[in-house]
């Protein structure tokens, strides 16, 4: 089943089939600020297992699963976020960032990686917020992109519905979207590791002001995610605690393009 929703002015009634499917423990496809994604209710073991299968991740994987939460309060509820990083995170969210944090006891163990970590996102997308609000709990999420090394292609909801007809109950269609992965930051202790440089705001864009950021966004819409400024550095590099780069392809796939 596919439901059409206005991304700028989503109607709760049109989202109801997706909410009903989530409450039954089923998997949906829905839009985020980084492209289309699989989603299920955090409380559904059946849904979590289904998304693990879709993403090819077993419970021994080093990659943490990622959940979509409503805001900073929920980030602190499900992940251990020290005061050192809180001010930075408050500037980044909502937005295209995935925070890899130590999981609290409120996170289902089936979502942990082997290091007891979890990914947390607060997307800047009205449909995401409305889904969480109507469902009343976070969403487990994982991008529909086949893999980190896959060539980005324009994602069409009708095509996704046909491709995953057996696995997905409802597809929320807001029109074609370019997949553009989130920036993944691992925040454990006082340090920040940049596991993947993605769509998140760059220093170059911030220095250039609104016009530069708007120009970069136009380029992404026209040409896809590859059209990013060369030589960019992450906003996280401005943060005082040590920021470590880990050029590990497997680590860079953490949170699976969430």
Automatic annotation (TrEMBL):
Keyword Nucleotidyltransferase: yes
NCBIfam families according to UniProt: L-threonylcarbamoyladenylate synthase
Disordered as annotated region, ranges: 205-231, 239-258
Enzyme class: transferase
Pfam families: Sua5_yciO_yrdC
Keywords: Nucleotidyltransferase, Transferase
Residue ranges of every copy of the YrdC-like domain listed in the record: 12-200
GO molecular function annotation: double-stranded RNA binding; L-threonylcarbamoyladenylate synthase
Protein name: L-threonylcarbamoyladenylate synthase
Biased composition annotated in UniProt, kind: Low complexity: 249-258
Record EC number: 2.7.7.87
InterPro entries in the record: DHBP_synth_RibB-like_a/b_dom, Sua5-like_dom, SUA5_domain
Coiled-coil ranges from the UniProt annotation: none
């Amino acid at each position: 089943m596919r439901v059409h929703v206005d991304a700028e002015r989503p109607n709760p009634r049109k989202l109801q089939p997706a909410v009903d499917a989530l409450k039954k423990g089923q998997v949906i496809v829905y839009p985020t600020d980084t492209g289309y994604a699989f989603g299920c209710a955090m409380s559904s073991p059946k849904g979590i297992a289904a998304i693990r299968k879709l993403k090819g991740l077993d419970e021994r994987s080093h990659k943490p699963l990622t959940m979509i939460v409503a805001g900073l309060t929920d980030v602190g509820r499900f992940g251990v976020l020290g005061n050192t990083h809180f001010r930075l995170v408050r500037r980044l969210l909502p937005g295209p960032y995935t925070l890899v944090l130590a999981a609290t006891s409120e996170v289902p163990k089936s979502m942990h990686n082997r290091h007891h970590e979890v990914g947390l996102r607060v997307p800047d997308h009205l449909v995401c917020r409305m889904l969480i609000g109507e469902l009343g709990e976070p969403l487990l999420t994982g991008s529909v992109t086949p893999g980190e090394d896959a060539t980005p292609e324009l994602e069409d909801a009708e095509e996704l519905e046909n491709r995953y007809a057996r696995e997905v109950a409802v597809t929320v269609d807001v029109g074609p979207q370019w997949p553009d992965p989130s920036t993944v930051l691992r925040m454990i202790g006082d340090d920040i590791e940049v596991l993947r440089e993605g769509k998140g705001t760059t220093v170059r864009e911030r220095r250039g002001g609104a016009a530069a950021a708007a120009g970069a966004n136009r380029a992404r819409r026209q040409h896809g995610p590859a059209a990013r400024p060369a030589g960019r550095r992450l906003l996280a590099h401005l943060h005082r605690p040590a920021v470590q780069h880990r050029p590990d392809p497997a680590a860079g796939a953490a949170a699976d393009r969430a």
